[in-house]
Request: fold
Amino acid sequence: MTAVFSHGRLRLYLLKLLAEGPKHGYELIRLLENRFLGLYAPSAGTIYPRLQRLEAEGLVTHEAAGGRKVYEITDAGRAELTQRAGELADLEREIHASVADLSSLATEIEEQVSGSVRDIKRELREAAQQSRRGRGWEPARPWTQAGDLDRAAGELAAEIRRLARHPGLTEADVRVALAAVHRATAEVRRVLRG
Reply:
């Protein structure tokens, strides 16, 4: 996945969003989050310094309204957008590609985690059945009940689905999460083979 907003391109995109109408910083953050289907949202610490620089350059102005600064593009800001129209079109294409990458990455994580959780549940059921067949069945102790394990597996799957949709998710985060899931799967299998 490429860094869409590298090299001052977030600055350009903020000008584009402000050309659509005046907005406060939080609105800009939400617009970007929506544009990236909730998979990326810049922090206030990313947006507000850029807005301040744009204002210092005379490309935007602000007015206080309802306790918030509402930013508006200036004629100089519109002129910059016009001059950089080709770059803005390229940026729009890259954003579209980046959203597609993030979306497929989130789907891939969900599929892998769901598969791992299903495998663990199946192996736990099989182990319990073999155990019951091999010796007289005894009620499990509370901490070993299959229901507890089933709930824990479900919680793990839910957390990983939440991570897959987390704004700011990086490829490194995905690798770390997948490694953790694979380690947990291997550990459960090790316990089952006992």
The helical segments are 9-19, 25-35, 44-56, 75-83, 85-134, 146-164, 171-193. The mean pLDDT is 79. The beta strands are 23-24, 60-65, 68-73.
